[in-house]
Amino acid sequence: MFCSCARSKMTQVSHHPWGEWPGQGTVDLWVVQSPQVKVEVLTLGAIIRSVSYRGNDGQMEDVVLGYDNLEGYVSDKRYLGAVVGRVANRIAKGRFVLEGKEYQLDLNNGPNALHGGLRGFNKAIWLAAAVEGGVQLSLTSPDGDQGYPGEVQVSVSYTLQGEELTVEYQAQANKTTPINLTNHSYFNLAGQGVADIYDHQVSITAQSYLPVDDTSIPTGEIREVKDTPFDLREPVLIGPRLKELQGPGFDHNFCLSSPGGPWTEKRAARVCHPASGRVLEVSTNQPGVQFYTANFLDGSIAGKCGCRYRKHSSFCLETQNWPDAVNQPSFPDCLLRPGENYHHITRYTFTTV
User: Fold this and answer.
1) What is the sign of the dihedral through the CA atoms of 148, 316, 219 and 109?
2) Which CATH class is domain 12-352?
């Protein structure tokens, strides 16, 4: 039963309890719906559970991978739909030095730390409140959380107007700390559960990308995309392009701005599924976007309606700072200092051609 409902500019916002995580608390499901798009958000991990919109055939289709029940999200190890932090992506050897002190994080991705640690923001139950056109979720990350310094107050809001979902992240800290927040939704514009994304077309407005070592840590080089398989400035079909890559697929940071450049909102990426006509466009004020083609899904996950999620069944466009920036002085600054406000905005526009 819905326990609240608000209307704003044709956007309906409602919520109800979705499940109980024993020992942790109640997880609520929020529904934010415009005439064009329906978005479901969980208070666990500030997770986008679903995004549904029509294709050219007029049928509503859910285009985000996920689970039918809370247990799936509690046990999930692939960050489906979640906000990840305190630091998204990888930190080399889980180690960094800040103001003369060395910090050692738990290693949860081979020799590296990934997406905030063993119990990052994706496993926290956030507080939620209705805002105009959507929902705002907030979280307090205590000093020492997962090994990071300082208490951090974090909020993320999801607001929907027509075809556009705006995600706005803010954070303040009482000690200097690295921060890098993103959403880790896996998309398939043909519909979640469809076998692969080989028939999707992608373009990313990046002149350069970050090569990585064999543990997916950037080498420090900023390499031009020109004359490489990473040149996605014009739309390319994902399936054939994946065959040109060494390795299992895309899992790379595309550079949307230069180190030291202003963090202004810009178009980042566009993905089109010609068969259904569905299009996803992404803009952001972040200096990078991690394009990931679900290389490590292996069919072991039973998702919505029992669908088995396999390699290349979806894609992520994780708008964020550059990976391992805390250890790479030439990369954009990822430190949040007392008195400063971290502000990240990303917009997803869901349309048809």
Assistant:
1) positive
2) mainly beta
